User: Fold this.
Amino acid sequence: MKIVIAPNSFKDCLSASDVAGAIASGLKEVFPEAELMQCPMADGGEGTLDAVLCAMAGERRTASVSGPLGETVTARWGWLPESKTAIVEMAEASGLQLVPGGRRDACRSTTRGTGELILAALETGARNIVLTAGGSATNDAGAGMLKALGVRFLDAEGQPLPPGGLALGSLSRIELAGLDPRLHGVHFQLAADVNNPLCGPRGASFTFGRQKGATADQMVALDQALQHFASCSAAALGECHSDVPGAGAAGGLGFAAHAFLGATFRPGVEVVAEMVCLSSRLAAADLVITGEGCCDAQTLQGKTPLGVARLAREHDVPVVVLAGTLGEGYEALYAHGIDAALALTPGPMTLEAACSQAPELLRQRARDIGRLLRLGGRLGLSEVRRD
Assistant:
């Protein structure tokens, strides 16, 4: 029996590689003879860099860049020398995990560090840049990234705008003459796990602003500032990009990447699946086990389990999801190629306890799946693939 193990990370708990390892450990207890292929996955959020580099034996590099609130942080990025491809995970430079809860400030946090990582990739000779957009602490529509790349944003007095999304409400002029010329001819892919527009009720500010520290009034002000930025950008570029699906990803970083860098948008899980050759791994598989920290209706918006299930369906391979929790609406996944979804916890448990015991819980649930497969064999149901 060949089983592909392709989970996402369990956010703030375990990396995708650790999740896959724990699942493999549980299966081996029951199926020591099975061929277990671990394929850590991601969907454009944190962990995407590790998943790709693990699968492709790429190089891990570091750079000192500006953090979300301007402090210096050491951020990792990936390099695939044969294809001259850089993997820039924006969360490494501009991620929510870099800002303690009490200091989160959606009004002034900046993506400048992400732009500085792109500069490091350009210095190395990158011709392709995969920009992963997820887990951001920012709401500046990528303006900080563009500043690092040479774009100037000026107010009515001709003064440079301060960092942050709120300042964009005072934007009067955009100067593109200083945009780094090395960007010409570089192909950008934006890998994201959401398809929100830049502004409006489903936009970056209202959908994600609260988790980044914004109050209700600040979310209104930020949305207005981003609308103004979009209008100024349309005047400067001759085209409006604010309603492009994914423009609202990572606090609007998707907007800047698409409008100013010509990035093509693809669901993050599709980009990762392609880079780690998941489809070919599934071709001869009998079962795939995937998972994420919380599996619910949001999973249908392009999270890892859905992306894995879509590929598995092409090869007629059954899919089981292991999740830290099963939230409201998870049953809808059954109509999209997922055959079973199981939660890890055996009973009531605090989040802290669940996280600390996650490796053992994963091992136990994977062992339980193995026992069910053994039972199927004893009952004469040895064919795991769908009829």
Summary: The chain has a mean pLDDT of 93. The CA atoms of residues 10 and 60 lie 22 Å apart. The chain has 13 helices and 13 strands.
